[in-house]
């Protein structure tokens, strides 16, 4: 497969690289060290990145955005994440919901929802699925059981929807302006058949922000609780069909989610490799450069291998996603799982190289990468995500065999 970037893709890559090196990296560790989680965000970097297109990049050109393809999206995310994984995610989180709006909204909704987003450099988007009693159950719900999964309730009253319930860990809940709230519109149906999505402005009466999550990693990136207390939204807030399900299958939103985490991991791995190599070539132990020690060489070798394998897979899936209008491939989930393994191994190996020096200040950057990398074990490569990967693969194998059987029976 040819992964040569075209001129436009290369342009985005170089601009993202410059922005990450010159503007993100200098503030990364300082923002990470701020103790109060709601204070770590830096609006200035968001404004500057937004002016370069990093907030609105995924909105199609005909709707006023930049319309970059999946290959460019992963390349930009990786470059930004090399500067700071959480800042990269703060930008790309908006793309995720732009893809959902693209997948589900009517032309009228698109215009109404995207116009303020495109016009304001500080307008951030978020989406709420997770609740205190529903995390993994939303991802792999026990088949057919209506009691499992999210409970936020949306009821139709007097031509409006009334929302009651709560969400947690919601990205941008305390700083964003528009949220895609996943709610049960039929509590007696299983999750996949009784859930709808509503676009809810944060200033809707009855919507209240709770406490901000004090995370060990991704500290710049804001997550908080959201409470819905008789929050009324108009019928026109409904995105897609009533009971339209959790995922817009076949749409860009689902494909993007897997690419996004995996591409971000590439950037973190790149930062770790760069840091590990520099440390090994600069620092000495036992009278020799670290790079001359066999154990350090083995660590660097492992770091390089995992990083390059991950990059190849991410680019391949992004290119396939651009080429195909079909739903997301079963490989997408495995890629996220692999990204989780790769980022852990690479970041821990980098920390091990730095720990050879025995100086806390020198290893602070390596420690931050490990804390950021742990995020993947919660959202991209935990046991439920891995079971989901295998179940998708088993289902597609069955379908492929059946299609093969039908073909041979017909021939
Ligand atoms: C940084 C970050 C950002 C997030 N942003 C958002 C957001 O913007 N919007 C949103 O809606 N949510 C968000 N989330 C929440 C995220 O989707 C949940 O954390 C995730 O779904 C897991 O749910 P949970 O944390 O409740 O873990 P749990 O569901 O309690 O799972 C805990 C562990 O148990 C394992 N487990 C659970 N059930 C089983 C089983 N049946 N068999 C085997 N193992 C099992 C899981 O794999 C996991 O390892 C975010 C989370 C993080 C960490």
Please provide a written account of the structure.
This protein is an alpha+beta fold and 411 residues long. It has 3 domains: 7-119, Butyryl-Coa Dehydrogenase, subunit A, domain 1 (Orthogonal Bundle); 125-239, Butyryl-CoA Dehydrogenase, subunit A, domain 2; 252-399, Butyryl-CoA Dehydrogenase, subunit A, domain 3, CATH 1.20.140.10. It is 55% helix and 14% strand. It has helices at residues 7-32, 43-51, 70-83, 85-104, 107-119, 136-139, 191-194, 252-282, 294-323, 331-355, 360-379, 383-410; strands spanning 125-128, 153-157, 160-171, 178-184, 195-201, 207-212, 223-234, 238-239, 284-285, 288-289. A 4-stranded mixed sheet has the order 1-4-5-8. A hairpin with a 2-residue loop joins strand 9 (284-285) and strand 10. It is globular, with a radius of gyration of 22 Å. It starts with 6 loop residues before the first helix and ends with a helix. The structure holds flavin-adenine dinucleotide. The site of flavin-adenine dinucleotide (FAD) has 19 residues, from strand 1, helix 6, strand 3, helix 11 and helix 12.
């Amino acid at each position: 497969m040819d992964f040569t970037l075209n001129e436009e893709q290369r342009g985005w890559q170089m601009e993202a690289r410059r922005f990450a090196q010159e503007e993100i990296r200098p503030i990364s560790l300082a923002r990470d060290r701020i103790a109060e989680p709601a204070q770590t965000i830096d609006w200035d970097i968001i404004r500057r990145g937004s002016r370069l297109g990093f907030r609105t990049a995924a909105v199609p050109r005909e709707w006023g955005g930049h319309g970059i393809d999946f290959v460019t999206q992963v390349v930009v995310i990786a470059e930004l994440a090399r500067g700071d994984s959480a800042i990269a995610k703060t930008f790309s989180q908006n793309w995720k919901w732009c893809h959902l709006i693209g997948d589900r909204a009517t032309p009228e909704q698109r215009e109404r929802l995207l116009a303020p987003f495109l016009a304001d450099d500080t307008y951030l988007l978020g989406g709420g699925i997770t609740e205190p009693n529903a995390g993994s159950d939303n991802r792999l719900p026990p088949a057919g059981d209506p009691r499992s999964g999210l409970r936020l309730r949306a009821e139709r009253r007097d031509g409006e929807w009334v929302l009651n319930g709560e969400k947690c860990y919601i990205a941008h809940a305390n700083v964003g302006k528009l949220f895609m709230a996943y709610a049960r519109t039929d509590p007696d149906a299983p999750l996949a058949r009784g859930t709808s999505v509503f676009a809810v402005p944060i200033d809707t009466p009855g919507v209240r922000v709770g406490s901000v999550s004090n995370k060990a990693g991704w500290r710049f990136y804001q997550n908080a609780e959201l409470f819905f207390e008789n929050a009324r939204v108009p019928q026109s807030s409904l995105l897609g069909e009533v009971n339209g399900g959790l995922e817009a299958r076949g749409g860009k939103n689902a494909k993007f989610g897997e690419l996004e985490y995996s591409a971000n991991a590439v950037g973190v791995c790149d930062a770790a490799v760069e840091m590990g190599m520099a440390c090994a070539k600069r620092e000495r132990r036992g009278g020799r450069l670290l790079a001359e020690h066999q154990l350090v060489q083995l660590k660097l070798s492992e770091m390089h291998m995992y990083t390059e394998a991950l990059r190849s897979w991410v680019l391949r899936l992004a290119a396939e996603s651009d080429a195909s209008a079909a739903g997301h491939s079963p490989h997408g989930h495995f890629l996220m799982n692999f990204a989780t393994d790769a980022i852990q191994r690479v970041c821990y190996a980098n920390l091990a190289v730095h720990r050879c020096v025995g100086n806390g200040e020198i290893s602070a950057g390596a420690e931050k990468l490990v804390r950021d990398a742990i995020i993947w074990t919660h959202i991209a490569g935990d046991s439920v995500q891995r079971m989901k990967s295998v179940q998708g693969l088993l289902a597609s194998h069955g379908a492929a065999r059946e299609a093969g059987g039908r073909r041979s029976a017909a021939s």
